[in-house]
Amino acid sequence: MSIFKAARFALAAGLSLSATFASAQVYGRPPTATGGIPSGRTTIYGFAGGTDAATPKYVKLAIDSQGALYGTSAYGGANNLGTVFRLTPPGPGQTKWTETVLYSFAGGSDLANPQAGVVMDTSGALYGAWGGLVYKLTPPGPSCAPTAPNLWCETILYNQAVSPEAVPDSPLIFDSQGALYGISWIAIVGVFAGVTPTEQDFALVTKLSPPGPNCAPVAPNLWCAASLASFDMRAGSIANLPSIALVMDSAGALYGTTPIGGAGGYGTVFKATPPGPNCTPTAPFPWCGSVLYNFFGADGQTPAAELTIDSSGNLYGTTLSNVFKLTPPGQDCRPISQNLWCETTLYAFTDPLGGSASQAGVTMIGGALYGTASQGGSAGNGVLFQLRPPVPPSTKWTENVLYNFSGGADGGNPLGGVIFGPTDFGFGAAIYGVTATGGPAGKGVVYQLQCKPQTGEIYGGAQHVVCAQ
Questions:
Q1: 68, 153, 158, 176 - which has most CB atoms within 10 Å?
Q2: For residue 308, what are the β-bridge partners?
Q3: 3 state SS of 427
Q4: pLDDT tens for residues 102-133?
Q5: Which residues belong to the signal peptide in this entry (predicted)?
Q6: How many whole angstroms separate alpha carbon 467 and alpha carbon 142?
Q7: Phi and psi (nearest 5°) for 38?
Q8: How many whole angstroms separate alpha carbon 273 and alpha carbon 286?
Q9: Is-contact 249 271, C-beta < 8 A?
């Protein structure tokens, strides 16, 4: 069994993993820190800029079956307009990860300065969207003869400039049929509330479909795009909004956030439901859209990141001021005001040492939540944190700061979320993510924090994956 498969098996089985973390501003395999404490924090790559990648922003890394990591950078590359990069873990007898720029964006008919990451299909191709374009990157092979300096081939699947449908400025997600979904931001000038001209901002849930029985692309586009549902963000500004991924439940419904608008003016959590017993669409959209929760400030403000859904259908996410949980109506939830679901603040970013201004979603492993805050911490350059669920009879979630970014060689300002994958040197799991600043050249880093196996770690009545100091 490969290390990657073993780690995935351990996580799926609910085995308890624990780690001790300390700063290790090195590349590859972490050394033992002074005092005999194993170092768990590793900068596995520092971006150099120039022809190398630089400044990955709202990027959650993708990982393949061999443990290689993929992402985008907003700058760097052959044209300094951004890249798609790969990091390959060390092979036998090696200690360093290998970074490769797979593609340099060129602007013009190509996109430029992407801030959203990529998603991988079952054949190893990568997909992304930015600036009105949806692209596919294919590794060399019978259908791909790359042109220097690029090592992979790019295909533009959809260009909204030649079609009326807006396309996402967000990370994409797949459904079981191979279609892609994302969020588009759009401003429309028209008659709103009897006032004209008025600019109104909307979030569109967009579906991108490959050619088939339900898709006959119009040239030059190779795929089809459709706006499924719309959410009014009211008058505001969609300029510089972060890229926010959707999440899909087992019934095919999609959930997302808007960082502005809503009844309270501080953003919303929404749901887009496909037509069926629970949805009778209203023209012109083929799906039903509903706002599940409106933030009013005291309960959180500016939810600017993707959500996580648990096996019970609860949603977890972050705003600039807190980490929250949304519960559907039922015995433990009686919604109030203009909301359809109930919100619980699990942790408020009131102590700067615990981080602040989270612009990344949380990842749930074994009942605990893991995420980043782009500011705060002991050096003011952000933190990687863990939230542990309550141990009865307590009802309080507990924050554990796993790492304080210094803004120096170890990176700073982590804007993207985290993923779990295998370690590069043994059985167990590790957390991976990117920072937008810091590193040897000040262009950001990819970091790793190890989670080593440890038995007997129990809270909430069951074993869990735990990454703790």
A1: 158
A2: 316
A3: coil
A4: 999 999 999 999 999 999 999 999 999 998 99
A5: 1-24
A6: 43
A7: -60, 130
A8: 9
A9: no
Cα distance between the two ends of the chain: 29
Q: Is 264 left (phi over 0), alpha (psi -120 to 50) or beta?
A: alpha
Q: How many CA atoms, within 13 angstroms, populate the side-chain half-sphere of residue 24?
A: 26
List the domain boundaries for the chain: 1-46+352-469
**Residues 135/190, Cβ–Cβ less than 8 Å:** no
Element (DSSP H or E) covering residue 7:
helix 3-12
Q: Given its phi and psi angles, is residue 340 left (phi above 0), alpha (psi -120 to 50 degrees) or beta?
A: alpha
Collapsed DSSP state (helix, strand, coil) of residue 447: strand
Contact 205, 287 (CB under 8 A): yes
3-state class (DSSP) for residue 227: strand
| Number of residues written out for the chain | 469
Radius of gyration of the chain (CA): 22
| The residue to which tokens 């304080």 are assigned | 404
Separation between Cα atoms, residue 181 and residue 225, nearest integer Å: 10
Q: Is the pLDDT of residue 333 over 80?
A: yes
Q: What is the pLDDT of residue 133?
A: 94
What is the spatial distance between Cα 333 and Cα 324, in angstroms, rounded to a whole number?
14
* Closest alpha carbon to 114 in 56, 48, 184, 185: 56
Task: Scan for tokens 């096996």, then name that residue.
Answer: 311
